[in-house]
Design goal:
single chain; 1 helix
Length: 88
């Protein structure tokens, strides 16, 4: 199972060390014509979202983990916005 391309991919710089935090944001698979153009138009686009963390990083977990992908896919199909990140 492969996730769709994220809507946004970015990094957040650390204030304590030189390790950036890699992040991705996925939007549910609905037509762009249904996405609200203004914040008050939300009738056709859910505004629920989650931040999905992955299994223990030192043991090989990442935001590309298979189990994370399955859970993210379920939330996307339910219309949720999903954010993932890689623990440093």
């Amino acid at each position: 199972m492969r996730l769709p391309e994220p809507e946004y991919s970015f990094t957040i710089p650390s204030v304590h060390d030189d390790l950036p935090l890699s992040c991705r944001v996925y939007h549910p698979a609905i037509g762009s014509e249904q996405r609200p153009s203004t914040p008050d138009v939300t009738s056709q686009w859910r505004t629920n979202g989650i931040v999905m963390a992955h299994p223990y990083a030192p043991m090989g977990g990442s935001y590309d983990d298979r189990v994370v992908g399955m859970i993210v896919d379920e939330f996307l199909q339910a219309g949720w916005i999903v954010g993932t990140f890689n623990f440093r």
